[in-house]
């Protein structure tokens, strides 16, 4: 899978040094292992028994493949930021964490871009609430504008380009180095949405070459 990188607070340079280098290799290796054919197979597997269960975008397939790859390298999925039981659940949870790095896979609404950027900061900074994890650097994996269009994603999701726009005004509060990874669109296919029912869409694979 092809992707673009944007480094905030020299994140990419920092990740080339120990102890981050091995974890960076694992992240990149997982993304590199997701070919177009693997992505098609995973996406279509959700609708094998019932086409109505076919997702309308590639988000579920990508999430699942990233999770399988990272967990295989020993990353903790759905890692809590805080120990305090008042701050549990999805709001206070990282998608993945290992050692000094926290990861968010962000295919959600653009209105939560700022919160997605703040999660690695909360995981890295000391806090008045007792911490469950302490990292030093954040990685945000998101879709580029082209991936949003060709991958069948909702028009309101936050894109790689939009995440970059948020970095400047939030620069004074984003004290943690953050590496943005923008996933590029597939090369041999795209997702074409079909309306099955009044409120039900599915995404079928359309080969483009």
Task: Explain the overall architecture.
This protein has one domain (3-207): Restriction Endonuclease (3-Layer(aba) Sandwich). The chain contains 7 helices and 8 strands, in the order βααααβββαβααβββ. It has helices at 11-15, 20-32, 36-45, 59-72, 113-124, 145-150, 160-167; strands at 3-8, 76-80, 93-98, 101-106, 137-143, 178-183, 189-197, 200-207. Strand 4 (101-106), helix 5 and strand 5 (137-143) form a beta-alpha-beta unit. The mean pLDDT is 95. This is Restriction endonuclease. One of its GO terms (molecular function) is magnesium ion binding.
The top level CATH class name: Alpha Beta
If you compute it from the alpha carbons, what radius of gyration comes out, rounded to the nearest whole angstrom? 17 Å
| Biggest sheet: strand arrangement | 1-6-5-4-3-2
What is the residue-mean pLDDT, rounded to a whole number?
A: 95
What is the rounded distance between the termini? 17 Å
The main β sheet shows up as: 6 strands, mixed
Summed up, the helix count is: 7
Named CATH topology: Restriction Endonuclease
The gross shape turns out to be globular
In CATH, the architecture is 3-Layer(aba) Sandwich
- Regarding quaternary structure, what we see is single chain
Q: Which structural class do you get from the secondary structure elements?
A: alpha/beta
**Whole-number total of structural domains:** 1
Beta strands, count: 8
* Helicity range: 25-40%
Order of helices and strands: EHHHHEEEHEHHEEE
> Any low-confidence stretches, pLDDT <50, length ≥5?
none
GO molecular function: DNA binding; magnesium ion binding; type II site-specific deoxyribonuclease activity
InterPro entries: BamHI/BglII/BstY, BglII-like, Restrct_endonuc-II-like
Protein name: Restriction endonuclease
